[in-house]
């Protein structure tokens, strides 16, 4: 297979790319951090003997997205799988105190960015008569939690788009799936708290979150079902997390 993973410089996207590479698949990896992309390409090619193409672009910029996708070398086409993973949370504030810049960054990345990438890639899949789009949603797309307001709204939008894309692409024979994780320890919380690593660490204190590899495993499983099987939606949680807000922690003060 040939797979394109957005946001492969870190966390879930990076582990997903590694899972496909480990299984011998050809990869296109994307992100904004060019040095990380180059280093990761080098590692994957050496370690797994596969071909990797890098695309450095910001998913929030439609012209950059279109140019990058149009520039994919023919040897990396047709694409079999698109993993729409690039995304972020910014801030954790009440609606009356939230920063408008945080809201715009989340909406522009998680909703508009995912749409721009899909709009550029889907016609290639339609032309090829095959393909599979896997959207990384979240428990935040299934539930809303206090101060999660806009992040949850963006992931609810991903949940709706996942369903809408599946309907629109059904006649074209293109599969659409969503993998919705609960808490996963990546750079997610450091980004959410504007680089405050101490605050980010506290999010996972006393509990075992998912590892990005656990989510990658679910993505790869969804991508490798037989042709007649589609995985519509997976909600994957740490064993100690029942809902967005109910987590069992063992803290040293207990
Ligand atoms: P990370 O911060 O570790 O990774 C985010 C990735 O997205 C990076 O590779 C980053 O690359 C990329 N990205 C962010 N903004 C842009 C942009 N504007 N243009 C291009 N790429 C971008 O976080 P995670 O791995 O945790 O997050 C991946 C996805 O998983 C997100 O959609 C997130 O919402 C979702 N998720 C995360 C959960 C968690 O608890 N961690 C739980 C549920 C869902 P670069 O900075 O190089 O551009
Ligand atoms: C990330 C999971 O619970 O921090 O989507 O919103 S959560």
Descriptive overview:
- This protein has 8 helices and 7 strands, in the order βαβαβαβαβαβαααβ.
- With 254 residues, it is of the alpha/beta class.
- The chain has a single domain (2-236), classed as 3-Layer(aba) Sandwich (Rossmann fold).
- Strands 3-2-1-4-5-6-7 form a 7-stranded parallel sheet, sandwiched between helices.
- Helix 1 links the parallel strand 1 and strand 2.
- Helix 3 (62-70) runs parallel beside helix 4 and helix 4 packs parallel to helix 5.
- The chain is globular and about 55 Å long.
- The N and C termini lie far apart (49 Å).
- The protein binds NADPH dihydro-nicotinamide-adenine-dinucleotide phosphate and 2-hydroxyethylsulfonic acid (8X3).
Q: Distance between termini?
A: 49 Å
- DSSP summary, beta strand count: 7
Here the CATH topology equals: Rossmann fold
Q: Counting H and I runs of at least 4 residues, what is the number of helices?
A: 8
Largest sheet: 7 strands, parallel
Which segments are poorly predicted (pLDDT under 50) over 5 or more consecutive residues? none
Mean pLDDT: 98
Name the strands of the widest sheet in spatial order. Answer: 3-2-1-4-5-6-7
What is the N-to-C order of secondary-structure elements (H for helix, E for strand)?
EHEHEHEHEHEHHHE
Provide a concise account of the structure shown.
The chain has 254 residues and is of the alpha/beta class. It contains eight helices and seven strands, in the order βαβαβαβαβαβαααβ. The chain has a single domain, classed as Rossmann fold (3-Layer(aba) Sandwich).
Properties at a glance:
binds NADPH dihydro-nicotinamide-adenine-dinucleotide phosphate, Rossmann fold, 254 residues, 14% strand, alpha/beta, single chain, 7 strands, 8 helices, seven-stranded parallel β-sheet, binds 2-hydroxyethylsulfonic acid
